[in-house]
Structure formats: C-alpha cells, structure tokens
C-alpha cells in the first residue's frame, strides 16, 4: 500500500481520470460516441458546412456536424423507423466557446440504426430553428 503525499497524488489522479471518462461519455448525448474531425472515407465538403450522414460498412451511422471546437453540438435525439431517419442536436456549452469552425463526428451503432436506412436524413438544430434534409451516403 502506498501512503503519504505520493499515495494521495495517485488517488486524486485516478479520480480525475475517472471523472474525465464519465464526462466524455455524457458529452455524446444519445450518440454512442462523439469525436472531433471527420473519419476517412466519409465524403464531406468542408466549404459547404452542411451536416453529412454516412452509412458505414459496419452498419453504423456517422453524422458530421460543424460548429465551435470547444462547444460541439450534442446529439439529443435519434430515430430511424426505416422510412425516415431524424437526428436532432442541441448546443453544448463548456463556458466560453471558441469562434472557430470545426467538424465533429457522432456515431450511432448498427444496433440502434437497424436494418433499413432511408436515402435521406433530416438533421435538425431546434435551438437555431435549422433543419436540413441531406442524402445518406453509403460506402
């Protein structure tokens, strides 16, 4: 057993790391994961800045959004009934947001997506009264 100052340092460090993992998980909202950037293989036009929805080879869906890198959107709803795919996002605020424009990718698992994926998806940002219908690209 480690005691003293070093032991407290190790215990506090472990607690901070655990809290960071919990925070990262909750930041994805209803998505299975949220990561900065755009994975390779997803056709995105960085000048267009429209959301991109891509059916991946493993059956999961990747949704790419654009916004502040320090306050990326959080997936608040996901619904696919086989006829319509709807994804909604809310803003996330970590205090003061940077005034940059960065891509964020939200992944929804194949289990959540289901067997049938429509040709188009509706991506909405209700806080900004913004709804866009985009093509679901495929591998």
TrEMBL record:
Signal peptide (residue range): 1-19
Keyword Signal: yes
Keywords in alphabetical order: Signal
Protein's recorded name: Lipoprotein
Species this chain originates from: Microbacterium enclense
């Amino acid at each position: 057993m480690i005691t003293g100052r070093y032991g407290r340092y190790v215990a506090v460090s472990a607690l901070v790391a655990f809290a960071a993992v919990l925070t990262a998980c909750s930041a994805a909202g209803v998505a299975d994961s949220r990561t900065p950037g755009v994975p390779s293989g997803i056709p995105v036009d960085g000048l267009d800045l429209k959301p991109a929805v891509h059916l991946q080879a493993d059956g999961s869906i990747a949704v790419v959004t654009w916004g502040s890198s320090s306050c990326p959107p959080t997936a608040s709803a996901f619904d696919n009934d086989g006829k319509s795919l709807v994804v909604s996002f809310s803003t996330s605020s970590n205090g003061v947001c940077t005034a940059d424009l960065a891509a964020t990718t939200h992944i929804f698992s194949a289990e959540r997506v289901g067997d049938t994926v429509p040709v188009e998806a509706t991506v909405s940002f209700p806080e900004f009264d913004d709804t866009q219908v985009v093509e679901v690209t495929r591998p």
